[in-house]
Amino acid sequence: MAGKFCVSLTHSKDDTDKATVAFVIANAAVASDKDTSKLTVFLGAAAALIVTSAIGVAAGSVVSNYVSEKTLQYVAGIGFVGIGVWTLVKA
Q: Is the four-CA dihedral 87, 88, 90, 91 of positive or negative sign?
């Protein structure tokens, strides 16, 4: 079971997932009411997702008023290629 947990943890989509799991584990070790601490962590993670999504939508709305869609596509493509090259160089 622990091995399966470790594999699924390493395949999580980003570091936020790992931080949330670590926070739950750390709080469960010290909290007297484990259900409350898990609920608090869940609500905090959900709120963080909502806030970051709202920021992304707002920023995208502002940027799209000043930059054309074609330019955004080129910038995104160059960014993905750059990240790929950086990953290969760093490996």
A: positive
* Cα Rg, the chain, nearest whole Å: 19
Question: What is the tens place of the pLDDT at every residue in 38-68?
Answer: 777 778 878 888 998 999 999 988 988 999 9
Contact criterion met (CB below 8 Å) for 45 and 20: yes
Q: Of the candidates 81, 16, 11, 84, which has an alpha carbon nearest to the alpha carbon of residue 45?
A: 16
DSSP-assigned states of every residue in 70-87: HHHHHHHHHHHHHHHHHH
For residue 13, pLDDT beyond 70: no
State whether residue 56 is helix, strand or coil.
Answer: helix
